[in-house]
Amino acid sequence: MKHEITLHVNGDEYPIAVDPWRTLNEVLREDLNLTGTKFGCGSGDCGACTVLVEGRSVNSCLTLAVEMDGREITTVEGLAPSGERLHPIQEAFVERGAIQCGFCTPGMELSALHLLEKNPKPTEAEIRSAISGNLCRCTGYNKIVEAVADAAGRMKPKK
Amino acid sequence: MTLSKFDYYGPKTVAEAVGLLGEIGEGAKVMAGGTDVLVRIRHRMLKPRAVVGLKRIEGLNGISCGPKRGLSVGATALLADVAAHRGIRRLYPGIAEAALGTANVQVRNMATLAGNLCNASPAADNAPTLLALNAELTIQGPGGERKRPLEGFFKGPGVTDLAPEEVVTAIFVPPPAERSGTAYLHLSARGKHDCTAVGVGVMLAMAGRKCRDARIFISACGPTPLRAPQAEQMLIGQVPTDKRMAEAGVRASGEALPICDIRASADYRCRVLGVLTRRALQAARDRAAKKG
Fold it and tell me: How many Cα atoms within 13 Å fall on the side-chain side of residue A59?
């Protein structure tokens, strides 16, 4: 039996009927065409599917869409909603050369956002810990860590 | 690989969840955070007819912690919230360490303490410290509520004492004993993020310069988390010097039943367990001393 739910993704509402066994990752990519969120390992190890739910980073591949009814979801598409100006985290990733093949990038950026929203001035150790659930198989970790530190300086403090 | 097909139920009360489990019967699977259940479904190790999710049950994610009332963690409280909880970090640092040491950021934002126990992995990071602290489970079933010690709950890899229609609703930890300390240490193949290859959780209570009580539990070195009673006896009534703790560590590794698998060899596990046990005991002793 399909379940009628409403997903709130990047500020938009999507009333949708979903099969109970479908993951948030599948619904984002296949039904909503938000393919910025990737599918990697399917088991919570690689972090390519990371999205924020109510501001917290989760693996969308291990989240049932049916359990996301009414929850606020942020995907990489929500980082630069205007489509004109990149988010400071994205700017830092581009300028610091933190992107190689790009497959891990959306997840990395959302993990960075999850960190910086809570901790605007993280240490290097805190950054490395924050992205420990995101694997980069190009192994470009140093540039990514530098980019997150750089982004911390670019983001306006929330008050 | 997509998930196999199942029905989903999101009960709003524990009683409703227990009722559903009875109605659905065989093939019903209780799910809290889903980080184990959904992986097992994806890998075709589990093919439930129906998933009964607990997340919509109001109040089940509560954490209550105090020096007199002890610690109570609801079944859907997240590992991230357990790890970050100030009261837990102050009164039960070993529990916070174990929660923080489980998997990675995203998984801790979804997974629960109760789920980690009910999944009954021999490598469950949160089991040893809770066992060392005499944790108790609150379980709801068709006949009402029962409580049982966590010790003895694990029957084998993936197998617990829980009946099919029962749901663990909370984990209770008694108030910390006077002048006691806890610690959890673990190792895995890659940093601390991979599945634990060797883990040890300890509780040490002091009286004067001597050790009054000791509880040592090992993970990932047997079919369930294991107790090391001989190592405990080497400490109780003794002055816990570094040397004695090293000896207790060696004894604990003799009490383990490790296998060789993809994460480590049995020999490696035994050697490392001795060292980890010594270090965990030292950390617990130092914490007990700080409490005066």
Answer: 30
pLDDT in tens, A111-148: 999 999 999 999 999 999 999 999 999 999 999 999 99
> What pLDDT digit, counting tens, does each position of B46-70 carry?
999 999 999 999 999 999 999 999 9
Q: How far apart are CA B255 and CA B69, in angstroms?
A: 34
Flag whether residue B84 sits within 8 Å of chain A, measured between CB atoms.
no
For an interface test with B, give the residue of A43, A69, A134 to mutate (most B CBs within 10 A).
A43
CATH number at B150 reads 3.30.465.10
Q: Is A133 in Cβ contact with B103 (below 8 Å)?
A: yes
Q: Structural domain of residue B248, as residue ranges?
A: 180-290
Interchain pair B38, A20: CB under 8 A: no
What structural domains does chain A harbor?
3-78 (3.10.20.30), 88-154 (1.10.150.120)
| CB of A111 less than 8 A from some CB of B | yes
In this complex, do A42 and B42 lie within 8 Å of one another by their Cβ atoms? yes
| Assigned token pair, B132 | 């060392």
Which CATH number covers residue B224? 3.30.390.50
C-alpha distances (whole Å) from B18 to each of A67, B15, B138, B220 are 19, 5, 14, 31
Q: At which of B173, B195, B210 does a domain end?
A: B173
Q: Are residues B204 and B260 in the same domain?
A: yes
Structure tokens at B65: 């912690």
CB pairs under 8 A between A and B: 82
The string over B260-290, giving b where at least 16 C-beta atoms fall within 10 Å of a residue's C-beta and e elsewhere, is eeebbeeeebbebbbbbbbbbbbbbbebbee
Domain count, chain B: 3
Q: What is the ipTM, given to two decimal places?
A: 0.96
CATH code for position B13: 3.30.43.10
Residues B43 and B68 in one domain: no
